[in-house]
Amino acid sequence: MKLQQLPQEFIAALPILEKIEGAGYEAYFVGGSVRDTLLGKPIHDVDIATSAFPKEVKAIFEHTVDTGIKHGTVMILDQGQGYETTTFRTESTYTDFRRPDEVTFVRSLAEDLQRRDFTINALALKSDGEVIDLFDGLKDLTDHRIRAVGKAEERFFEDALRMMRALRFSSQLGFEIEATTLQAIQDNAALLNNIAVERINTEFTKLLLGKNVWYAILELLRTGVHNYLPGLENSDIDLVGLADLLKQEQIDDVTVAWMLLTFELGLTADDAQIFLKSWKHSNELIKVVRSGLRLLNQLRIKDVTDWQLYQVGTAIQATLKVLDLSELPIESTSLQVRYEQLPIKEKQALALNGGDLTKTLALKPGPLFGKVLATLEYKVVMGELANDKPVLLKAATTIIQKDQQGK
Ligand SMILES: Nc1ccn([C@@H]2O[C@H](COP(=O)(O)OP(=O)(O)OP(=O)(O)O)[C@@H](O)[C@H]2O)c(=O)n1
């Protein structure tokens, strides 16, 4: 099959292929960008595979960066754009974060494509538009099927993360996982124990954000893969609940995805922190999920105060989204309106600050200082005091006097 029209990103990179070919080597576009082009989707990274060894690539181009030289990857810089160019290779196991431990460079494209994960990812595109399809990847693309290249088991032994990738692609693309490949996932799920959790996290997050997440979660459960994911062992019922919620609407926000998951798992904010840490999430994401969960869990038992709403702060949008998707009988719009109408949304918006306490009331920094500001903040949020400097100064004076009388 020959592509008549190439996307702009490939056209821009054509001179690179042609230059490598001109030096007497083979070079092709490979991987996700070829798959996505054939699916009519936008592409992000253009990956190139070549028969030239790294030092040969470096001899052809003036500007290169050794991004993964041991694994055969050299970045070619051209017109402000970087192109990852990898020598044809076979590979053994991955224990490292993202690169295989050992690779053997080869000169044939067929051997390189043979070590790739799925047939839809094992297509190569030549500079003249010819699609090289050695494993019926085109048919699988048309039939919406994820099928391992060759023996699925061998591919998963090379890199167990590929089992997560199969589920992730099925969610993103809305493809079915072919029966033998699915069986091999079921048989080898325990190999995921050897994989760095950061890598699993990346794939699982993409799965949660996919359009066919409902199917992917059911396949995840069917194959037992969830039993090898941190904190998800034996959480079948919660995951089915999550799958049902996500059936209603595709989500596009990583934080919302993880908040929804922890909410469905019925975790408290503290337990969610432990759970998310085990997935190696950032402190920033953990903080947002924690405050959102606190509010949502409060809503499970009773209404929330404006102060609780205020404390959710920047996590409010994600939280309201989760509320919308959850089964709690509360309208997110009413909370949204209440949040919008809060007198202030952050401490900095208080009409009185520490400087005013020092200058106008001669209060020195210390425990009382913090107590005064915190009390004013609470009262303003709760509508007990207007956010107005003279009003707050008066209230501050009263708090200080009471404190001194108390001593
Ligand atoms: N564990 C892996 C990871 C990657 N690949 C191969 O390397 C290519 C590029 O991998 P990557 O950039 O991780 O994924 P893409 O398939 O490009 O998908 P996306 O960019 O959408 O994540 C894949 O298409 C596949 O051929 C593989 O065989 N096994």
From TrEMBL:
Keyword Nucleotidyltransferase recorded? yes
Query: Which residues take part in binding Mg(2+)?
Result: 45, 47
Question: What top-level branch of life does the organism fall under?
Answer: Bacteria
Q: What class of enzyme is it?
A: transferase
Which positions are annotated as binding ATP?
32, 35, 116, 159, 162, 165, 168
Q: Which residues cross the membrane?
A: none
Q: Which UniProt keywords apply?
A: ATP-binding, Magnesium, Metal-binding, Nucleotide-binding, Nucleotidyltransferase, RNA repair, RNA-binding, Transferase, tRNA processing
Q: Which InterPro entries match?
A: Bact_CCA-adding_enz_type3_sf, CCA-adding_enz_C, CCA-adding_enz_firmicutes, NT_sf, PolA_pol_head_dom, PolyA_RNA-bd
Q: What else is known?
A: A single active site specifically recognizes both ATP and CTP and is responsible for their addition.
Q: Which family is this protein grouped under?
A: Belongs to the tRNA nucleotidyltransferase/poly(A) polymerase family. Bacterial CCA-adding enzyme type 3 subfamily.
Protein name per UniProt: CCA-adding enzyme
Record organism:
Weissella oryzae (strain DSM 25784 / JCM 18191 / LMG 30913 / SG25)
From the broadest rank down, the organism's phylogenetic lineage runs:
Bacteria, Bacillati, Bacillota, Bacilli, Lactobacillales
